[in-house]
Write a structure and sequence with these properties.
The protein has 435 residues and is an all-alpha fold. The chain has helices spanning 3-8, 16-39, 56-77, 90-121, 126-151, 160-176, 181-200, 208-228, 230-233, 259-262, 270-295, 298-308, 310-315, 320-346, 356-369, 374-390, 395-412, and strands at residues 40-44, 50-54. The protein contains 17 helices and two strands. The chain has a two-stranded antiparallel ribbon. α5 crosses α15 and α5 (126-151) packs across α16 (374-390). Mean pLDDT is 82; it is low at 1-11 and 431-435.
């Protein structure tokens, strides 16, 4: 038999008994993992004490799904690892290569146009307006963290600290010095950038996991300081009655000097929500524009060089100390802007709004969207935040679905949803169309 004939022979099927054995073992492992997390939960009893109850049906469904999945996987792939890079059929691959270059040029204006028209489309739906503001806030946070993680290659797990610094800076300055939002906004960004530089100095020699641990500790230190310094930050009670922004000095109230009376409109609380929407949209677009401009400057190219190889970056004479500090300070500044907006939008802030989960969510948006990709981060923020809201009715299972989605993305798209982008700088002899 020739070699060609041997390669065309179908692979030997995995024995059904062995597949059943693997499936049973996987089901037992799932039972051990989920027995306490899903099978048991506590509810308040008649006297206020917590009473343990069971969810055996939910536990049985999850174990059954694991058993079926493990059995099918063993029959199809045996015990061999599943190849993560699945190949598309030739017609689909050719179609992808044809439309991929034009997708960005079409999708970006479409998303921008939709963002500009969203208040008109959702004017009578307060829920969708609030959700749009939330998505844009996380898009801005993702673009700010992208400077540190995506461009400079520094793993930051404490980004929520700069978010908190911006929020508390605005709240305290507005209350104690009676400054307007437009004056406090740049001050909040400057203070957050200053704290970014303070974080950058101790971590100049750290990389990878060690850098992640230190930045996570920094975020927790900021949260605990806000929680315990009651005379200054209000402690666990937070800060309330934070001033709202005005439209060039015109407040959004139902008085004679209000926005509606000034422009001859019928008073509606939606006017302020639409104004806040356009404020965060402008801040997000500013973050995107500044990031794209910085990437083409020497400091941006230094970030990308340090991300690829820090040792080679030093050998080229690049000052990695200044490069890291500028990355931390610029990313922190945009986090401070977003924090100031969050404070004026909510009207109330407390340390509970700035937990590690916020940092993890923003980092997940950056990683899933594609590190260094502005468009990918915007799409990831939209999908994740909207996905959370769609699955709100299934609150018990939405984190499980989210976890499965993240695992699938990491297997089949390890570089994120949008993993390709043009280089920031071409060589002098680069010609259009060359690879």
């Amino acid at each position: 038999m020739t070699t060609c004939d041997q390669t065309q022979m179908p692979a030997r099927r995995f024995p059904v008994a062995a597949a059943l054995k693997d499936a049973v073992l996987a089901a037992l492992v799932a039972l051990g993992l989920f027995a306490l997390m899903i099978g048991l939960y506590t509810v308040p009893g008649p006297t206020g004490q917590l009473v343990a109850t069971t969810r055996l049906q939910s536990l049985a469904i999850i174990v059954g799904v694991v058993f079926a999945g493990a059995f099918v996987r063993a029959l199809l792939f045996g015990r061999e690892p599943i190849a993560p890079n699945l190949r598309l059929p030739a017609p689909l691959l050719a179609l992808k290569e044809r439309i991929a270059p034009a997708l960005g040029t079409i999708l970006v204006p479409a998303l921008l146009g939709f963002a500009l028209l969203a208040p008109a489309l959702f004017y009578n739906d307060r829920y969708l307006l609030d959700l749009s503001i939330l998505v844009l806030t996380y898009v801005m946070l993702g673009w700010g963290l992208n400077i540190v993680v995506g461009l400079a290659g520094l793993l930051d797990l404490g980004y929520v600290a700069f978010y908190a610094v911006g929020a508390y800076s605005y709240a305290l300055l507005a209350q104690h010095f009676e400054l307007s939002f437009w004056i406090c906004l740049p001050l909040a960004g400057i203070l957050a950038a200053f704290w970014g530089i303070l974080l950058g100095f101790p971590v100049l020699r750290l990389r990878g996991d060690y850098l992640a641990i230190v930045t996570m500790a920094f975020g927790e230190i900021i949260r605990l300081v806000l929680l315990n310094w009651q005379s200054f930050t209000g402690g666990p009670n937070g800060i309330s009655s934070i001033p709202r922004p005005s439209f060039f000095g015109i407040p959004f109230n139902n008085e004679e000097n209000g926005f509606a009376a000034t422009f001859g409109l019928e008073f509606s609380s939606t006017h302020r929500i639409v104004f806040l929407y356009y404020v965060i949209l402008a801040l997000a677009l500013l973050t995107n524009w500044v990031t794209l401009r910085l990437r083409r400057l020497p400091v941006g190219r230094a970030w990308e060089a340090m991300r690829e190889d820090e040792i080679a970056c030093r050998s080229l004479g690049i000052n990695t100390t200044n490069t890291k500090l500028t990355a931390f300070s610029m990313g922190a500044m945009f986090g401070g802007f977003a924090g100031a907006f969050f404070a004026t939008r909510q009207g109330f802030i407390s340390p509970e709004s700035f937990t590690f989960g916020e940092s993890a969510l923003v980092l997940a948006i950056v990683v899933l969207g594609g590190m260094g990709s502005q468009l990918g981060i915007a799409i990831a923020a939209l999908v994740m935040l909207a996905g959370f809201e769609v699955l709100r009715e299934f609150e018990q299972y939405r984190m499980l679905v989210f976890g499965f989605a993240m695992v699938a993305i990491m297997i089949w798209r390890p570089r994120g949803l949008v993993s390709t982008r043009d280089p920031s700088l071409y060589l002098a002899d680069h010609k259009k169309g060359e690879s």
